[in-house]
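Handoff note, outgoing to incoming analyst
You'll be picking up this chain. Sequence as last confirmed:
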Amino acid sequence: QVQLVESGGGLVQTGGSLRLSCVASGRSFSRNVMGWFRQAPGKEREFVATSNWSGANTVYADSVKGRFTISRDNAKNTMYLQMTSLKPEDTAIYYCAANTRAFSTLSRAKSSFDSWGQGTQVTVSS
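Most recent structure output, in case you need it:
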């Protein structure tokens, strides 16, 4: 089991940047597939990005590709989501997630992830 805590959310203007952090504790962070999801008011939780253990292989949602970057520092048990060129439609609660049973296979599906953080709010003003 992996415990995850997100931080770094806040209020920014359109075009601004934020870096979200996800600190993990427990077993087997460094070799886990990790991901970011988000949920806007009235909408279902949606996929944002995912990364394999090394960070060399990544997958992004079309809505964020070219603007967001997922990365990880396994020595610090921390995953990041660098968000640039933020838009009002990026406003959501962002969740960190881990697949503790997979190390290389990447998936966009919520069901592929078995550990979740509490979420951090990102608000982008127009």
